[in-house]
Amino acid sequence: MYFSGFFVVFSWSITTILCDTIPDYVYYCTGNCNKPVTTQTHPGLILMGGGTDVDAAFIQQIEWSGCGDFLVLRSDNDDKYDRYVYNLDCANSAATIWVRNRDGANNPNVTDYINGAEAIFFAGSNNLKKFTKKKKKRPAAVKRGVPIGGTSAGCDIQSYFIYSATNGSVNSPEALADPYNKLMTFAGYFLIQGDDNILNNTIIDTHFVTRDRFGRLITFVARIRTDAGGRKLLKTSGTYQLCAYMYQLDLGKGLPIKGIGINEQTAFAIDLETGLAQVLGPVDTSEAYLLMPSHDPEVCEPLTPLTYKNVNVQKVKPGYVQRVACSYVCIRICFFFINRYSSLQLIYKLTLLSLPLFCNSDVFNFRTWTGGESSRNYDVSYINGVPQEDPYN
Ligand SMILES: *[C@@H]1O[C@H](CO)[C@@H](O)[C@H](O)[C@H]1NC(C)=O
Ligand SMILES: *[C@@H]1O[C@H](CO)[C@@H](O)[C@H](O)[C@H]1NC(C)=O
Ligand SMILES: *[C@@H]1O[C@H](CO)[C@@H](O)[C@H](O)[C@H]1NC(C)=O
Predict the structure, then answer these.
(1) Cβ of 201 less than 6 Å from ligand 3
(2) N or C, fewer C-beta in 10 Å, the chain?
């Protein structure tokens, strides 16, 4: 009796000590962190394909935030975005929350930070997809129409369906050889933008050309088109750390699913008021692919290589204009001082002029699924898992 009482108290103390020293979230902030602002925001979506960050896309998101408070959500411990974002343009502050676990995702303080932000960005991370949030309410920040962005896995989670990779990551040859192999795991998400989500019925893949993912994306599309005619809420799984609802894939056929393949150093900046997206990034490496099949796959069965003929593809690229010209010009007066840790700290920043420059990149309309150069529109066929032409064209 006494012994077990002691044991309970003892383990309670240990737990308390551990819980006090290991918080479920960690908050970092640069800039005017004690003076948050409330600005007029413009709804937009930044979809970034991983690798080197695209400055122009961050600048666009900061501009859409009305120079407000920029918040990065991530599941690993790194606050490198704070200084980068703060010094890039006119953000009032740039903060990162390291969400360490599911409790962190559900912590009311984290919800408050999200609700106070004028821009939200999901950093890439392998763990990102596994944190879910219990509450099903969409945060006020999202309802306010704040611009949302993400790169790599943080971009993948923006689409309606996601490749969850819960059994490990699949490569193109493995996916094509057997569209039902055990690495082909999906989840349905209803993230952020709600029912009129511009990314309704899409699945995104990132690091697209760098990791040769055309074969796996076309197989994802084929699988979801074959299996996911309807969606059913998985009550037990709750939501993603921000506000995604998770759905189980129902059986059914013919969903008008579309694939979005985004290469590294490439970003779509989608204006949610118009549905128009600019392609941003350095001209030589940036490209994205929109897979828009109009029919079911010919063969999408277990243990059988995929056959999917004449899938329409629109390739999009930034224009010939240099990356710097695809950005904004900012002239600033900066005051620095040396703080007591002898590091240079920016204490005041005034943006005098911020002009968008002419940028000749491809424009794609995500409402109508049209746009881009007609010369970059083509069909791709895979027969018995083998592409009949260069899918990247
Ligand atoms: C929320 O933040 C406050 C102030 O930093 C802190 O005292 C409190 O413990 C936090 N609450 C939770 C649930 O983490
Ligand atoms: C994941 O792998 C396990 C073990 O191989 C398997 O039982 C399970 O069905 C796989 N999940 C999916 C969705 O294929
Ligand atoms: C989203 O897709 C589903 C399934 O195709 C469809 O029923 C629904 O109307 C779509 N929503 C919008 C806003 O297009």
Answers:
(1) yes
(2) N
